[in-house]
Amino acid sequence: MEVEAMAELTWNNNQTTVLMGLSILVAIILFRLVMKRVTNNTGGVKGRRNPKPPMVGGGWPLIRHLPLFGGPEPPHLKLSALADKYGPIFSIQLGTHSAVVINNWEAAKQCFTTHDIAVFPRPKLLSGKLMGYNYAMFIFSPYYNSYWRKMRKITTLDLLSNRRLKLLRQVRESEVNRAIKELYQLGGRVEMKQWFGDLIMNLVLLIVGGKRYFGAGAMVEEEEAQRCQKAMEESLRLLGMYVLGDAIPYLGWLDVGGHVKAMKRTFKVLDGMLTQWLEEHKKNRAGKNNGDFMDVMLSVLEETDNDILHGFHRDTVIKATCLTMVLGASETSIVAVVWALSLLLNNRDTLRKVQEELDTHIGRDAKLQESDMEKLVYLEAVVKEAMRLFGAGSLISREAAEDIDVDGFHIKKGTWLFINLWKIHRDERVWDEPLKFKPERFLTTHKNFDVKGGQQFELIPFGGGRRICPGLWFGLQLVEFVLGGLLHAFDIWTPEDAAVDMTGTIGMTNMKATPLEVFIKPRLSPMLYESTSPY
After folding, report:
1. Contacts of 292 (CB under 8 A, 6+ apart)
2. Are 94 and 249 contacting, i.e. CB atoms less than 8 angstroms apart?
3. What does the pLDDT read at residue 14?
4. Residue 499 DSSP label
5. Are the C-beta atoms of residues 354 and 382 closer than 8 Å to each other?
6. Exposed, middle or buried, 8 (CB in 10 Å: 0-12/13-18/19+)?
7. What angle is formed at CA 343 by the lines to CA 338 and CA 349, rounded to 5 degrees?
8. Is the residue at 7 inside a domain?
């Protein structure tokens, strides 16, 4: 009896203890849930009450808003439309990843100044791994470390510095004159995207690898040139793509659409080209710097500590950095000059003013030289306005390395960031009639605006902060000189004077989707087309 009573008492005590424990546990869980909700709604940083950016409604099961980055409409246009509904800063969900889209210059400025280190990383996408030598291409490097700083320094000082650009001036002038001579001989109806592409690609390949791939004087077989050009174009399309494995890593093996397979196939072609270059440079160099960028890389990395290379083989670093220069310097310049000519053909009065300026300062009895460019202020304004409306890159992607507050909103560590340049450059608070092509604005109301990303964040076609495009000076000079040389040498018009289609593509760069076919007619003395010499 006493034993039974004791057992009953023990059970009651144990039951009471368990119930009390469960009650405390439930209370703790409820408290944490409440605090988490409060934190999510207020930002939870040192008492600040900053909300999270509003979340876009809808979304597909599992992948959520990933279709925003698919076709056929480019993602920057879809995101711009959402900004009109949800405001300049909003959230989306890409599979397992939270993302915030920034559509105003004030928030972009904070990202590139106050939070520059915090938003330095890029998302670790499959494209950067499979096509960027496992992120050895420093433009895809997710970390702000000694490797990124070293590669950035090499490219800035040894390829893209003002001193280096001056040394390469004659190369640029000769290549532009060579291309204009070929265009003169071709005559009639031509496709300008191809012409711009061959010219600029030749120039960049000569500077980086010492080879000309296209047209007269090509140093490779036509079949090889076409194969490499196709691989470069395909790589830029794939490098701007978000695949299922990026949004939901554990489903990456499905490879929906075959994009991962295409990345591997395209990379194999490009790596084969770069490996051949490297072997030839090692064989012919004999310890000397022959002048192109691959030779510079071989010399510099001989004296580089292995620790700085972060486990990458020297050959891998050389190939990755040279590929960065080829893709970055060529495609952005091609995109910019194609859009600039397209805009001019749709605005004939502006085209006429550019040619009048060329006739005034250069005349029709001399060739355009790079030293003449500082006189052509209207042409410079045209290029600025073209980059505002149709910059080579429309979205900048980053990742928050820590919790930050941007323009009144709280953004958690690990969140992907997309800065929508397309929307920023059409801000009606900044630009009068923002959808119109008005180069004159850069001679009047916006005279002091530049495109270098350091002062006015209302105009940042090359990005901003530490990751700003290192080739911006090279790109600006090249686009202005190529466009100026073409318009000085030829009168240009479209078949039947039709308007140019201004549809863009999906990819790493915002290339014009359709061909750019025009008629050309020489406007200079025939003797000026005969020689490729700039003098």
Report:
1. 206, 207, 208, 209, 210
2. no
3. 40
4. P
5. yes
6. exposed
7. 135
8. no
Exposed (0-12), middle (13-18) or buried (19+): which is 490, by Cβ within 10 Å? Answer: buried
Say if residues 274 and 319 touch (Cβ distance below 8 Å).
yes
509, part of any domain: yes
Q: Are strands 490-493 and 97-102 parallel, antiparallel or unpaired?
A: unpaired
> Is residue 175 in a domain?
yes
Write the DSSP symbol of residue 403. -
Residues 509 and 333: beta-carbon distance below 8 Å: no
pLDDT of residue 418: 98
DSSP letter at 43 equals B
Averaged pLDDT of the chain: 88
Please tell me the predicted confidence (pLDDT) of residue 453.
64
In a domain, 132, yes or no: yes
Structure tokens at 448: 């002091």
Residues 391 and 494 in one domain: yes
Nearest to 431 by CA among 392, 461, 389: 389
Q: Which domain holds residue 466?
A: 126-529
Closest to 51 in 3D by CA, of 62, 59, 43: 43
44 alpha-carbon distance from chain centroid: 34
Evaluate whether 240 touches 397 at the Cβ level (below 8 Å).
no
The CATH number for 167's domain is 1.10.630.10
Asked if residue 534 lies in contact with residue 174, where contact means CB atoms within 8 angstroms, the answer is: yes
Instruction: For the chain, report the end-to-end CA distance as a whole number of angstroms.
Output: 119
- Report how many domains make up the chain: 2
User: Phi then psi for 431, rounded to 5 degrees?
Assistant: -115, 120
Q: What angle do CA 81, 85, 90 make, to 5 degrees?
A: 90
Q: What is the pLDDT of residues 172-220, one digit of tens each?
A: 999 999 999 999 999 899 999 999 999 999 999 999 999 999 887 888 8
Given a contact cutoff of 8 angstroms between Cβ atoms, the answer to whether 310 and 188 are in contact is no
